[in-house]
Amino acid sequence: MATQTQDALSSQPVTQASQTLAPSSPAAVTGTQGGSSEKEAKEKKAFERWTKTLSLITGIGLSKEEFQEEVDKIDRKQCELRKEQLIKTSPGVRFMMNNLVKSGCPLTKNMLECGPCDNTKSGGFSKDHGILLCQNGFFSKKHQEHTMIHEMIHMYDHCVFNMDWDNLRHHACSEIRAAALSGDCNWSREVRRGFYTFTKQHQECVKRRATLSVQGNPKCPSRDAAEKAVNAVFESCYNDTRPFDEFY
After folding, report:
1. What is the pLDDT of residue 204?
2. In what order do the strands lie in the sheet with 112-115?
């Protein structure tokens, strides 16, 4: 035993103290095994995250339903995170929330929900349920910010004015105001959509966006009817910037 220990320690003399310390104590063994086990657990988790990420990118190993479920989770998490950040930091969002409180219609967090939508929408307002943010419909945080302000303007109009959403002119007026005041028709947004002009770009965008929204009203029989409703109220509604002093 002494010879083996001396060989292992480059033939150093074996003292009584070194002989006492040479055998590994149970505590030392346990600590080593625990560290190894903890390391293996971390490596396993890292590998599982890697394979899950790979599955999401490639779709391999997941059914269509499982893949969509994972995508929905990621979209919702990002939407909720941005929502919380914008409520705290966006001047436009905070301004609208304060004015909704002043108008007697405070917007609570459970009235501002993230959820999946079809690919044609980024948000919506319901007088009965509040605001829906389309978690799969945003290409940037700024896009989500504009959408939140847009839908808050609809909520403000419903609270402050005697709105009849089945009346196409009423609907058109709120859509004109929301498109004009939310930032939805900023130059950069229009360029991204492939629309840009050098004269009356903002007005043209507002008319186009409002017409599309009114056209989706179940009470609207045609695009022509939507255009007529928008044109009939455009002048007065475009110039009504309440509660803003000017276009946001």
Report:
1. 92
2. 112-115, 130-134, 123-126
Tell me the C-alpha distance between 95 and 149, whole Å: 9
Domain count, the chain: 2
How far apart CA 210 and CA 17 sit, in angstroms, is 88
Residues 49 and 81 placed together within one structural domain of the fold: no
Residue 120 sits in which domain range? 61-238
157 in the same domain as 224:
yes
Q: Which two three-digit tokens encode residue 202?
A: 């903002």
Could you tell me the pLDDT band of residue 21, with boundaries at 50, 70 and 90? very low
Work out the pLDDT band at 198, boundaries 50, 70, 90. Answer: low
Whether residue 14 is contained in a domain is answered as: no
Catalytic residue among 145, 151, 175, 190: 151
**pTM here?**
0.72
Residue 69 annotated in active site: no
